[in-house]
Amino acid sequence: MTDRLFGLPEEAFRFTVPRKGLITKTEIRVLSLAKLDLGPGQTLWDVGAGSGSVGIEAARLVPDLSVWAIEKDEEDYGCLQENIRNFDLTRRMNPVFGKAPEALRKLPKPHRVFVGGSGGKMADLLDFCWGEETHPGIVCNLATVENLAEVLSWAKSRRIEPDILHVQVGRGQPIVGLHRIEALNPVWIVSLFAKEEKKTSEEEGRA
């Protein structure tokens, strides 16, 4: 564990390598948390949580935030549980073993949803998370053009104007006494908010 308040390095978490070493990279995690626009007392679903890095950072940053971290892979779920214990977040983070959206049905309604993985059911997952009456803010991390296309098609069908951020991060690496830039995989961060909530958030930002 680290004493850093925000932007924890990947090394601060236990995660599976290399079979499924898809932990959300620090830079992407920071931007995703900003897009989630979390507030005290809210409930966050971290879907496809993996190691739990996004949910853990969120819980450390926001007072009284309740986090439900859903993961379907048994080995990743073990890492998630260990990380929650290591960061002393067992009272505010709730690990859930199962596949979304089925594993979400008995959880408390969310104010925000972070989608790090869909298990091949992106449209079904978004339908379930969005609901029929109140709509949580949803932030998706997407690494493939197919998933991006599915999310944008879903948003269009719901008449939601998505906020799309394409992120390409390069990190400096030493090479023979010099430095080069090593590129990380590009990621799309797509935010889906109801018009009413988006307007309220923008007005609060100007206040």
What would a concise description of this structure say?
The protein contains six helices and nine strands; from the N terminus they run H-E-H-E-H-E-E-H-E-H-E-E-E-E-H.
Characterization of this structure:
With 207 residues, the chain is α/β, with parallel strands linked by helices. Helix content is 32%, strand content 24%. The chain has helices at 26-36, 53-61, 74-86, 122-130, 145-157, 195-206; strands at residues 43-47, 66-71, 93-97, 112-115, 137-142, 163-167, 170-175, 178-183, 187-192. The chain has a 7-stranded mixed beta sheet with strand order 3-2-1-4-5-9-6, with helices on both faces. A two-stranded antiparallel sheet has the order 7-8.
Order of helices and strands: HEHEHEEHEHEEEEH
| Integer-rounded radius of gyration | 17 Å
Structural class: alpha/beta
* Mean model confidence by pLDDT: 90
Provide the CATH top-level class. Alpha Beta
Question: Helix count?
Answer: 6
**Residue share in helices?**
25-40%
- Overall structural domain count: 1
Per DSSP, what share of the residues sits in E-state strands of 2 or more residues? 15-25%
- What is the CATH topology? Rossmann fold
List low-pLDDT spans: none
Task: Name the CATH architecture.
Answer: 3-Layer(aba) Sandwich
Shape: globular
Q: What oligomeric arrangement do these chains adopt?
A: single chain
Distance between the termini: 36 Å
- Order of strands across the main sheet: 3-2-1-4-5-9-6
- Name the CATH superfamily classification: Vaccinia Virus protein VP39
